[in-house]
Amino acid sequence: MDLASAFSITVARRPDAIAVVDGGRRLSFRECHAESARLAGGLARLGLRAGDHLLLLLKNRYQNAALYWACHMLGVIYTPLNWRARAAEIAYCLGDAKANAVAFEGASAESVREALAQSGLEALPRVVLADVRTEPGDASYADLAAGPTLERPIAAEEDSTCLMLYTSGTTGKPKGVPRSHRNELAATVSMIAHNRYVFGDSALGVMPMYHTMGVRVLLAAALLNGKFVCVPAYDTELALRLIQDEGITTMFLVPTLYYDMVNHPDFSAFDLRSLKRIGYAGMTMTNALSAACMDQLKPELFVNYYGTTEVYTLSFCDHVDAKPGCAGRPGLNQMLRLVVPDPEGKSGPDDLVAPGEPGEIIASLASPEAFAGYWRRPDANAKALRSGWYFTGDLGRRDEDGELYVIGRLDDMVITGGENVYPEEVENALSHCPLVRRAAVIGIPDERWGQKLVAFVEPAAGASAEGLAAYMGEAALANYKRPKEYVLIERIPQSPVGKILRRELRAGNYRRVQ
Ligand code: AMP
């Protein structure tokens, strides 16, 4: 089954249900399908064919969702990039993906045009939204969506690529992760099962559609005839308002967005009782935040979902209220192992760690959700794919019940005075401190300790380095896990989707609080 056929099934099931809400626009499944089919016709007239890449630099808007479906109807590979990406990164991806066309809006127009010029690709077909100042040769979205419908959607082979996401990793150039129709359908069915979504469940469309979580939310809502409520650019107050006004039942977000919501000064002014099944993914959540989410959002179900762009579901835990931070057990169709961590990448899938010991988490590539390898990156494949297993670069440990805890990235582990320290554990202890809004911990080179633990803190009122040291002096942590230094900074650096960027702290990219 390909995604376009899966969409047709959903449309036939409940054509009049609302599929997408974007500001004042509400499209039913029938309307969304019709718009996508006309767009697919338009894209075909631009010359796009099955197997081509359409690069998109768009916010979460109905046009983005319609282009997603239009691509699947044509067998074109939906290849989204961060709409805030700079020209150099766009130019790299235009070349890397061998893009056959690019779609953009006002917010991304300048960088895209610069990238096209840098790459000598001025003649590449372009689809532009209404807020772009057009140039000769631009095809307007409105014109494409007003033209004749694609006569016959191609029914793509399920192993063909329908989506390519770029992951930035910690170093180097972005890597393309091609995903097949089969991967995407299997991943979404897992997501639905593990989060216990039901038909008609609506979703807050706030995780960007250039990230695995964003496209997954769109697809899960669509398969269940639920509405996808667009939040084009993140705004906590708008998100809270939409949950209330649209009666949204599910959310799937990075912890950072939960943090912003539960700490919003007007949080209690919103009625969020419609929320039933919520989940987080993308990074660990501190115990303090996990408790605040349970307490303030009062979901029926709160899930920790551990996954990656490459493989999607690794594990999930549906009882984080009882075991905060727990990543539970492997998801449907997934086998996980913990192997001896080796930064050189020499461990194999049979180098298992002893029970209770931390190890690198590896996932079987036999899962129908798992990709088959990076796009034109044999170097990255050699590093991450070994003997049928995907090496995540994450460290995990199983507790006495056999349940997994993700303890951090192998690259972020700090060795201080010969002892291994995982930043997340220290950050977790700091999360309970009333002087701390957010914290991130790294190791910096030190003659005496090898690496010295340093905590960077976005301070709450009254915070000082001495106050933090005094608090941590009392915390239930081994001595060597207590930071040697506290630095109060204005903002913990984050990736575009809200993950802590410890590498930016290591590079000195932060501003001290005056
Ligand atoms: P991405 O491909 O952007 O989704 O990033 C995948 C990485 O995010 C994983 O390898 C983990 O390092 C991290 N991650 C994803 N989900 C979780 C989770 N639930 N808990 C802790 N880390 C996570």
Q: What does this protein structure show overall?
A:
Among the domains are: 1-232, Rossmann fold; 413-506, GMP Synthetase, Chain A, domain 3 (2-Layer Sandwich). The chain is built from 15 helices and 26 strands. Strands 12, 13, 14, 15, 16, 17, 18, 19, 20 and 21 form a ten-stranded mixed β-sheet that branches. Helix 1 (3-13) crosses helix 3 (62-74) and helix 4 (87-96) crosses helix 5. Bound molecules: adenosine monophosphate. Adenosine monophosphate binds next to strand 14, strand 20 and strand 21.
Characterize the largest beta sheet: strand count, sense, and whether it forms a barrel.
10 strands, mixed
Tell me, rounded to a whole number, the average pLDDT: 96
Ligand catalogue: adenosine monophosphate
| CATH class value of the domain at 1-232 | Alpha Beta
Number of helices: 15
CATH topology of the domain at 1-232: Rossmann fold
Counting DSSP E segments of at least 2 residues, the number of strands comes to: 26
Give a concise summary:
By secondary structure, the protein is an alpha/beta fold. It is built from 15 helices and 26 strands. Bound molecules: adenosine monophosphate.
Q: What's the structural blueprint in terms of helices and strands?
A:
Layout lengths: L2 H11 L4 E5 L2 E4 H17 L7 E5 L4 H13 L2 E4 L6 H10 L4 E4 L1 H13 L7 E3 L9 E3 H6 L14 E7 L7 E6 H14 L8 E3 L6 H12 L4 E3 L5 H11 L3 E4 L1 H8 L14 E4 L6 H11 L3 E8 L3 E6 L8 E5 L5 E4 L19 E6 L13 H7 E2 L2 E10 L5 E6 L4 E3 L2 E3 L1 H9 L4 E11 L3 E10 L5 H10 L10 E4 L13 H5 L8
Parallel strand pairs: 1-11, 3-4, 3-5, 5-6, 6-7, 10-11, 12-13, 13-14, 25-26
Antiparallel strand pairs: 1-2, 8-9, 14-15, 15-16, 16-21, 17-18, 18-20, 19-20, 20-21, 22-23, 24-25
Helix pairs in contact: 1-3, 2-3, 4-5, 7-8, 10-11
The structure holds adenosine monophosphate (AMP).
The site of adenosine monophosphate (AMP) has 17 residues, from strand 14, strand 20 and strand 21.
